[in-house]
Amino acid sequence: SALTKREQQISQHRATIVRLEGYETFVQTWESDKASLSEQLNLATQEVTETASRAVKYMELQVSRVTEGVFARRCWNTMRRHLLEWKHAAVVRRRAKRAA
Question: Cα separation of 57 and 86, whole Å?
């Protein structure tokens, strides 16, 4: 009975040792995973930041193109309107000369 009790204690101790070794392995794995994840997170953050800044630059470029386009269109429309007015005025003058 005393022997079986001793054997029981030994097997419990062995189980505890195995469990502790398991915990130790888990902690080591967790530490390396944590370092790896931290590195991945930094890379991802950097990538997102770069992508965001590229997107902002692209949007700024598009906005400037659009505003330049709008400006150019306004200039063109104004010029066209003036040309049409001058043409019309010339036609009116020609008609007036013919009538006179």
Answer: 43
Q: For every residue of the chain, which 3-state class applies, written as one string?
A: CHHHHHHHHHHHHHHHHHHHHHHHHHHHHHHHHHHHHHHHHHHHHHHHHHHHHHHHHHHHHHHHHHHHHHHHHHHHHHHHHHHHHHHHHHHHHHHHHHHC
Each of the 100 residues of the chain gets a pLDDT tens digit; together they read 777 888 888 899 999 988 889 889 998 998 898 999 899 999 999 998 999 889 888 988 888 888 888 888 888 899 999 989 999 999 999 999 998 8
Q: How far is CA 11 from CA 3, 5, 22, 55, 95, in A?
A: 12, 10, 16, 63, 120
Q: Which two tokens stand for residue 29?
A: 């794995």
